[in-house]
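Table 4 source record.
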Amino acid sequence: MACESWTEKLDAYFDGELPAEEARAVQEHLRGCSSCTAEGLRRVQQKRTVQAAGQRFTPDPAFRARIQSSIAARRPSPWGRYWFPAFATATVAAVVVAGAFLLNAQHERGNQQQLISELVDQHVATLASANPVDVISTDRHTVKPWFEGKIPFTFNLSELQGSPFTLIGGKVSYVSQSPGAELIFRVRQHQISVFIFQERGLGEVRDKEAPRSALSFEVRSWQHNGLRYFVIGDVSGQDLDKLSELIKAAG
């Protein structure tokens, strides 16, 4: 197989384990090889599925029994027989409340990570597509009006003149059946996806928990005026920060 040497490196590439020079070589190969790009997308989706499964956590049903057994093993003093049952009940209740709090926090983090993984998959699919955008234009006054009537909100696009970024175009994207905008920008030879969705359509997403990287891609996320923005690309964090600031200024 002509691309076998490249496909052997895909897992390490998406896990961020390749040296910088090898990672750049893989990136360049993926841009020119549709079969390896399709295989890469398949592996990213597989990683996302495994990651989502790993976020599921079910408290051990024997946990309460172990706590009660531990308490029962301690022989109470005569003077403590009156208040100890109440103390034990309060202790178990506190453990249950703490467990519920941690489980809820894990659930929210899992939802956030699953959402980011899904958007990374869409970004990779866009890179692999022969037609990555539905409206092709570097003019923000052409791209923004194209979304009217296609998504249930509007947004502003920044002026890129004097910056290293170029607007390529955009298309409608979906998360949990909620429509949003995916805008494609280029910096040097890299493409960056900017996703914009209504906050209310994304469920349990907390800005402070948003990861800053996923599957070797840099990620930035913020909320403004009821909209949630996600900026994803295989560029440096400084590049994503600069583009994010331009987009925030436009908003």
